[in-house]
Amino acid sequence: MGSPTRQLILKVHSRCNLSCDYCYVYESIDQSWREQPNTIAAATVDRLAERIDEHARRHDLRELEVVLHGGEPLMAGHDVLAATLGKIRAAFPATRFAIQTNGILLDDRFLELFHEYGVRVGVSVDGGPAATDRHRRYANGRGSYDRISAGIARLMEPAHTGIYGGLLCTIDVRNDPGEVFEALLAFRPPRIDLLLPHGNWTTPPPDRERPLAYGNWLIQVFDRWYDHRPAETNTRIRLFESIIARLFGRPSHTETIGGERPGIVTVETDGSYEQSDALKTTTEGGPATGLTVGGQSLDELLDYLAVAAPYRLSAKCQACPVVQVCGGGLRAHRYSAENGFDNPSVYCDDLLTLINHIASRVRADLAQAAAAGR
Ligand code: SF4
Q1: What does pTM read for this prediction?
Q2: Ligand 1 atom at shortest distance from the alpha carbon of 317
Q3: Which residues pair with residue 13 across a beta bridge?
Q4: Dihedral of CA 86/90/93/96: which sign?
Q5: What is the distance in A from the centroid of ligand 1 to the CA of 191?
């Protein structure tokens, strides 16, 4: 019997009220979202709840995180979200819930519901008004920062800090890293996720022609965070903490670093099982498995993925001095039309530079602490 799933990404709504130009769901080579029903059906949630119950009994599961996703998951509406949370909690009471949203539709009813089920709310925002409105716009071109920041402001109210999960920022290296970091910190998030824009060797990410643009951008944020934490802020940054964890042989908490984390499953609004959404940027049907909650159990899906999408590193990664930390980066970033995933990350130089920088900072601190007898 293989390992159980630890995290399930559940698409409850497949459309969005924004038209961000970098969105990997709508703007990528994979256009399968067009075939998806807008909202997950009650029967699909029922079947998924049965699958979770079956999986939990089989593995004597202690924990499972279900992340409500989209599209924009709040567009599914209060009743659908309430029913979905209720059915999954009934199937496996130890389920931890999270939701990733743009925050625009966040209202009192959603907040009440999220308190009832302990749903941690993550909001996507890229910094201040200019940085955010550069990409995160409505279909008519109007920026969305005002509405997004109003949603985050609700989460910052003392009554709601317990369900405030953090912020997700997609990096644009044209934005000043210090300004972005300060703008994000102003929202007092418990956690920040910094997301490298998706791209690969065939469809490179923006500004790829500028050497080390991402590595240097991230180093500036790291130094600011590392030098001032925790005196100024307790905000955690998952990418940096995962690199530090891997330097000490501890597990990473992001797919971007440390090798792939098996056991993450995506369920689309039509009930189909998929691999990571990031693979939408590789080929048409890149994340597809052909399996569904109606047809296969979660164990059958994991067995299928172990064969169809094994974790293999390129020769360059295998010989790399930081492979134990980096793990080859995100699978989607290793893709090329010529040889599939048998490549280092398209962000290889940036990751190497960032990891070496963080390692040297941490080692210097440890040496200083040892010299001081601490
Ligand atoms: S730094 Fe580059 S070569 Fe080394 S493991 Fe990461 S992607 Fe592979």
Answers
A1: 0.91
A2: 8
A3: 39
A4: negative
A5: 26
Can you tell me the distance from the alpha carbon of 169 to that of 194, in angstroms, rounded to the nearest whole number? 5
pLDDT under 50: residue ranges of the chain: none
Residue among 255, 256, 323 whose CB has most ligand 1 atoms within 8 A, to mutate: 323
Domain ranges of the chain: 7-308, 315-371
**Domain 7-308 is of which CATH architecture?**
Alpha-Beta Barrel (3.20)
Which residues have C-beta within 8 Å of that of residue 286, sequence separation ≥ 6?
29, 30, 275, 279, 280, 332
What does the alpha-carbon distance between residue 231 and residue 248 come to, in Å, rounded to a whole number? 23
Residue 324 C-alpha to ligand 1 middle, in angstroms?
9
Q: Which residue bears the tokens 């979660």?
A: 298
Residues near ligand 1 with C-beta < 6 Å? Answer: 316-317, 320, 322-323, 326, 328-329, 344-345, 348, 351-352
- Which residues, other chains included, contact 157 with Cβ-Cβ below 8 Å and sequence gap of 6+? none
Which of 172, 174, 130 minimizes the C-alpha distance to 149? 130
pLDDT (tens digit per residue) in 192-226: 999 999 899 999 998 888 999 999 999 999 999 99
Mutation pick for ligand 1 pocket among 247, 313, 336, 351 (CB with most ligand atoms within 8 Å): 351
Q: How do 272-274 and 288-292 pair as beta strands?
A: antiparallel
The pLDDT value given to residue 9: 94
For 195-211, the DSSP string reads: EPPP--SSSPPTTTTST
Question: What spacing in Å lies between the alpha carbon of 117 and ligand 1's midpoint?
Answer: 40
Contact predicate 313/341, CB 8 Å: no
**From residue 333, how far is each of 73, 198, 273, 325, 341 by CA, in Å?**
26, 7, 21, 16, 8
Pure H helices in 2-77:
42-59
Residue found under tokens 């399968």? 32
- Measured CA to CA, the distance from residue 90 to residue 103 in angstroms comes to 27
Nearest partner of 74 among 124, 135, 129, judged by Cα: 124
Going 302 to 303 to 308 to 310, the CA torsion angle's sign is positive
Query: How much distance in Å is there from the Cα of 347 to the middle of ligand 1?
Result: 8
